[in-house]
Amino acid sequence: MKTPIFQPRTDRETKLIENTKEEFRAILTERLNQLLNEANKTVSDMTGEVENYPDPTDRATLESDRNFELRIRDRERKLISKIREALERIEDGTFGICEECGEEISEARLKARPVTTLCIDCKKKQENDERLRGL
Ligand SMILES: [Zn+2]
Prior knowledge:
Blueprint: H1 11-46, H2 56-92, H3 107-112, H4 120-132
Helix pairs in contact: 1-2
The structure holds zinc ion.
């Protein structure tokens, strides 16, 4: 038996849903700010440093550090856009609804992974499909 958390029936439930939405909005906003701060820090660390390493070996190390940071930033960038999308879904009322089957995603799953757009069943199905296709 699923507990519907995003489709209100009574005033009390409406209030609960508002609180839950606020809770997720707070979690997502905080995570977004963290990521944006880290991203800014990385960018300022990366500017104007190369001239301080005249030795080619040091420079190579610095370059690979930089590639590493760029990869991290790529992952952060994806997460940032996922968080922004989740915040938009909170606004338009589709947050917590599986985009595959239209069922509500369990609150426990949302707590563990607020940016998810799939319920656990659809997620498992997707992972199985990917395994079958060798991804
Ligand atoms: Zn689903």
